Amino acid sequence: MSTRVRLGVNIDHVATIRNARGVSYPDPARAAVVALEAGADGITAHLREDRRHISDADIETLAAMLRDRERPLNLEMAVTSEMLAIALRHRPHAVCLVPERREERTTEGGLDVAAGHNWIAPFVEKLSANGSRVSLFIGADPAQIEAASRTGAAVVELHTGAYCDAARDGHEDEARRVLAALSAAARQAASLGLEVHAGHGIDYGTVSAIAAIPEVAELNIGHFLIGEAIFTGLGPAISEMRRLIDAARVDLQRAAP
């Protein structure tokens, strides 16, 4: 169990605001600098096929800037030939393969690695050989975790949306059930030699329970932080998230036998 959980900040929705007016601001690269200064360990950006927020130019800028700063870029992308070519060209520190449908508002559910193994495994092999650490974004499903372990990926990122939705809506029994499933999935993944990350829908009210899962090594959080930044500023929003993550880990350490 790591004593510190890394925080990756997703800056997609800085680009969403920029694109709403078709101007050059706010700049996702500036947001990335603020995030790092506020306690983020790395930056996550999802280059979607429809380019609804992050652009190709953003990825080029972020990749170069973060490489110069020796800080990691986590590129989220669909399992397509176009995205593979982009990732191979920019060689980000990490690539997280996610499911993607053009009609969805945000990523819904996880990859079906069990059904798509023969398509996904070659992507993992090519990206890994090119120097990127590959993560698969999946649900807390034992069959999917087992399938992920057979692709050669180094990491799984567990989809936390169902837990966060249930907790936010006050469905306590459902929240406990889903959190237990996430904890079991994290244990299974770690037993198979996979590093465990988690993300989607996390806010101040839900982060502590997820950060307290012993096997979780990294959280990727975006939409809530950009929204909270409207009221408190991006740096303070990230600093508070960092504080909550660290406090949850300290409590876990104290509770350990």
UniProtKB/TrEMBL annotation:
It catalyses: 3-amino-2-oxopropyl phosphate + 1-deoxy-D-xylulose 5-phosphate = pyridoxine 5'-phosphate + phosphate + 2 H2O + H(+). The active site is at residues 46, 76, 200. InterPro entries: Aldolase_TIM, PyrdxlP_synth_PdxJ, Pyridoxine-5'_phos_synth. Its EC number is 2.6.99.2. One of its GO terms (biological process) is pyridoxine biosynthetic process. 1-deoxy-D-xylulose 5-phosphate binds at residues 12-13, 48, 53, 106. It is found in: Cytoplasm. The record marks 157 as: Transition state stabilizer. Keywords: Cytoplasm, Pyridoxine biosynthesis, Transferase. GO terms for cellular component: cytosol. Its main location: cytoplasm. Coiled coil: none annotated. CDD domains: PNPsynthase (cd00003). 3-amino-2-oxopropyl phosphate binds at residues 10, 21, 201, 222-223. GO terms for molecular function: pyridoxine 5'-phosphate synthase activity. Signal peptide: none annotated. It holds the Pfam family PdxJ. Pathway: Cofactor biosynthesis; pyridoxine 5'-phosphate biosynthesis; pyridoxine 5'-phosphate from D-erythrose 4-phosphate: step 5/5. The keyword Hydrolase does not apply. Belongs to the PNP synthase family. Catalyzes the complicated ring closure reaction between the two acyclic compounds 1-deoxy-D-xylulose-5-phosphate (DXP) and 3-amino-2-oxopropyl phosphate (1-amino-acetone-3-phosphate or AAP) to form pyridoxine 5'-phosphate (PNP) and inorganic phosphate. PANTHER family: PYRIDOXINE 5'-PHOSPHATE SYNTHASE. Homooctamer; tetramer of dimers. This is Pyridoxine 5'-phosphate synthase. It comes from Candidatus Viadribacter manganicus. The gene is pdxJ.
